[in-house]
Write a structure and sequence with these properties.
- The protein is mainly alpha-helical.
- It has 14 helices and eleven strands.
- The chain has a three-stranded antiparallel beta sheet. Strands 1-2 form a two-stranded antiparallel sheet.
- A hairpin with a 5-residue loop joins strand 7 and strand 8.
- Helix 7 runs antiparallel to helix 8.
- About 12% of the residues have low confidence.
Length: 454
C-alpha cells in the first residue's frame, strides 16, 4: 500500500457519544433511530446487492484468461486500460475478503437456505474469490510477494479465510493455500525484526515500522498458531505507538538515514481494526480489556455527529439528506457513524475497521456496553452508506459495466453518492469495496454471533 496522504482528516472529529440502553442488533435498529427497523434479512439483502454491484460493475477476467478474476481499479474504463495502470495489490486482497464474507452467507443459516448470491447460473462468491487469487498471482508477475508487507498481510489473512470457507463448502484447496502461507510467512518472519525493539517493517526499504504492517501480521500469526510472536508484536505496538491520551494507535516510526527515528502520529481508522482483531484472537484478560478500550476510543474519537438518515418513519428513503447532528434541518442523525477517509487507499480504511468492530460486537467475552457500542457503529455507518446510495441510470457510462440499476455508494457518510459520484464521474473500486465491507459487517452483526469467528 502506498503511504496515506498526509492531508488526512483531523484525528479528532465531533462525535455524538454512544451512551444509551444496550440493544439487540439481531432484531432492531438502535434505540432512538429514525429508521424503520431493519431485519437481519434486510441487511443480508443489502450486502448481497452491494456484492452484485461490485462483482458485475468492476469484476472481469484478467486479460480475458479463463479461470481468472480481477477488480478494475476504476469505472468507467476499458477492459485493458484498467489492467495496465497502477497495481493496487492490497485492494484486490480486500476484494477477496469481501467475497469470503458473501460466500459465508451463501452457506445459509437456520432461517435461510443456501443460495448463490448472484443466481444459480453465475459463479458462487467462493469460486470468484478463488479465481481472484489466481488473477492476483498472474497480475503480480506469478508471485504473491511484493514490496509492502502490509499488502501481503492483507492477502494472507483473506486467503486464510478463503481456505476456511473452502473447507466449510467441502471444496478444499489445501495445496495452494499451503504454498501461499509458506511464501508469505517467510516474508513476515524476515520483516518482524528486533530493530527499534520489535514491530514489522512496512516495506522492503526497511525504513519504517508501523501499525499498518505490524497489526495485520500480528493477527496472521495469531490465526496460524504462533501466539507468542503475535503477542510480541502487540506489545511493541502498545509500547511504541499507543496514544494513551486518546486510546488509539498512531501510524508508525520512521528511521532516518543516520538511524534517528521520527514518530508519524496520524491516527487512521483502519489501523485500529487489525489491532482489535489480534487482541480478540489472542484473548486473555489484558488483551480483552485493551480491546474494550479501543472500541470505546473509536466511538469517542472516530465517529461523526451524524450521517444520512436511513429511512423515514414511513419507510420511504431519505437518501440525499445530510443530517449533521441531531436537530439539524435535515432530520435526526444516526448517532454513531464512523468517519471515512476519502478516496484512493483511504477509501478502504473505514470498511476495514467495521470488519473487526463486527467481531467485537459478537464476542461474548467483552462487556455488554462494549458490544453494543461496536454494533451500533457498524449498523449506523452501514445505514448512512445505504441511505446515500444511487442507482446507475440507463445511458450513463457506468451502465456499460454491470448494467443500469447497479448501485454506487458514497465514500462519505454525510454526502449522498449523487453528490460524491455524480453521473459521468469515475468511481474507484476501493470506495465500493468499503461500502460492501460495511454492509457485510452489518449483516453479520444483525445475524448474531457465529459458531466460530472466521
Amino acid at each position: 500500500m502506498t503511504q496515506p496522504d498526509a492531508s488526512a482528516p483531523p484525528e479528532d472529529l465531533p462525535h455524538s457519544g454512544n451512551q444509551g440502553t444496550p440493544w439487540n442488533p439481531g432484531t432492531a435498529e438502535p434505540p432512538g433511530s429514525p429508521a424503520t427497523p431493519a431485519t437481519p434479512a434486510d441487511w443480508a439483502a443489502r450486502a448481497t446487492e452491494a456484492a452484485r454491484s461490485v462483482t458485475r460493475g468492476f469484476g472481469q477476467r484478467l486479460f480475458l484468461l479463463p479461470g481468472t478474476h480481477i477488480g478494475a481499479i476504476s469505472r468507467p474504463s476499458g477492459r485493458f486500460i484498467s489492467l495496465i495502470g497502477p497495481w493496487h495489490y492490497w485492494w484486490q486482497a480486500h476484494y477477496v475478503d469481501c467475497l469470503v464474507d458473501t460466500g459465508r452467507r451463501e452457506l445459509g443459516t437456520a432461517n435461510q437456505p443456501p443460495a448463490r448470491f448472484d443466481g444459480e447460473h453465475r459463479p458462487s462468491a467462493g469460486l470468484l474469490a478463488s479465481r481472484l487469487v489466481t488473477g492476483i498471482r498472474l497480475r503480480n508477475f506469478l508471485t504473491f510477494v511484493n514490496s509492502y508487507y502490509d499488502d501481503m498481510a492483507w492477502l494472507a489473512l483473506s486467503t486464510l479465510r478463503l481456505e476456511n470457507l473452502a473447507d466449510e463448502s467441502q471444496r478444499p484447496s489445501r495445496r495452494r493455500s499451503a504454498r501461499i502461507r509458506r511464501s508469505l510467512t517467510l516474508q513476515f518472519d524476515s520483516a518482524s525484526t528486533d530493530d527499534l525493539g520489535g514491530g514489522t517493517f512496512w516495506s522492503t526499504k526497511r525504513d519504517f515500522k508501523n501499525t499498518p504492517a505490524t497489526a495485520p501480521v500480528a493477527l496472521y500469526y495469531a490465526r496460524t498458531g504462533n501466539p507468542a510472536r503475535a503477542q510480541a508484536l502487540l506489545d511493541w505496538l502498545d509500547a511504541k505507538l499507543f496514544d494513551a491520551g486518546r486510546g488509539l494507535y498512531l501510524d508508525g516510526l520512521r528511521i532516518g538515514p543516520t538511524g534517528e527515528t521520527t514518530l508519524e502520529n496520524a491516527i487512521y481508522t483502519y489501523n485500529q481494526g487489525p489491532v482489535l482483531g489480534a487482541l480478540l484472537e489472542l484473548g486473555g484478560t489484558r488483551n480483552l480489556e485493551r480491546a474494550a478500550a479501543v472500541v470505546d476510543a473509536v466511538s469517542r474519537h472516530l465517529t461523526l455527529a451524524g450521517g444520512l438518515t436511513p429511512e423515514g418513519s414511513d419507510g420511504t428513503s431519505t437518501a440525499g439528506t445530510s443530517t449533521v447532528g441531531a436537530g439539524s434541518a435535515g432530520g435526526v442523525g444516526t448517532g454513531a457513524v464512523l468517519r471515512c477517509d476519502g478516496t484512493g487507499d483511504g477509501g478502504l480504511f473505514t470498511g476495514i475497521l467495521t470488519r473487526y468492530l463486527a467481531q467485537a460486537a459478537q464476542d461474548g467475552r467483552l462487556p455488554g456496553a462494549t458490544r453494543a457500542a461496536a454494533a451500533r457503529m457498524v449498523i449506523d455507518t452501514a445505514a448512512a452508506l445505504w441511505a446515500g446510495r444511487r442507482e446507475v441510470a440507463p445511458g450513463e457510462a457506468l451502465a456499460r459495466h454491470g448494467g443500469a440499476g447497479r448501485l454506487i455508494f458514497s465514500y462519505h457518510p454525510q454526502k449522498p453518492a449523487a453528490e460524491t459520484y455524480p453521473s459521468g464521474a469515475a468511481v474507484e473500486l476501493s470506495t465500493q469495496l468499503q461500502a460492501w465491507m460495511v454492509l457485510e459487517a452489518a449483516a453479520a452483526v444483525a445475524a448474531g454471533p457465529p459458531a466460530t469467528t472466521p
